[in-house]
Structures are given as C-alpha cells and as structure tokens.
Amino acid sequence: VYDVSRYLDDHPGGIEVLLEVGGTDTTEAFDYVGHSSLAQENLVRYEIGSL
C-alpha cells in the first residue's frame, strides 16, 4: 500500500492517472506502463503498509 499524495504534482504521467486508480490494486497498470527501475526503487519512500 502506497501513499503517493506527496508525489501527485511530480508524476510524469500527470495527476489524473494517479487519482483514477487511487484506492485500487494498481500492480497490473504499473507493470503495463513499463516504469523504469528508478521509479520502482522510488516506491519505497511512499510505502505505508502491505496487504
């Protein structure tokens, strides 16, 4: 589980895409886009828990 609210303004894909998927499992969408390894590494700072 990630809280990306601090990242909204900096997201290269725009705020809208994050707001559309907020509160859902975004694993498939994240993988489909093909985020860089840096983007994957940066997720650590937004992690707030796990399910």
Automatic annotation (TrEMBL):
Matches recorded under InterPro entries: Cyt_B5-like_heme/steroid-bd, Cyt_B5-like_heme/steroid_sf, Cyt_B5_heme-BS, Cytochrome_b5
Domain Cytochrome b5 heme-binding: 1-51
One annotated GO molecular function: heme binding
SUPFAM superfamilies xrefs: Cytochrome b5-like heme/steroid binding domain
Organism: Lepidopterella palustris CBS 459.81
Keyword vocabulary terms for this entry: Heme, Iron, Metal-binding
Similarity comment: Belongs to the cytochrome b5 family.
A GO term from the CC aspect: membrane
Protein name per the record: Cytochrome b5
Entries under PROSITE patterns matching the protein: CYTOCHROME_B5_1, CYTOCHROME_B5_2
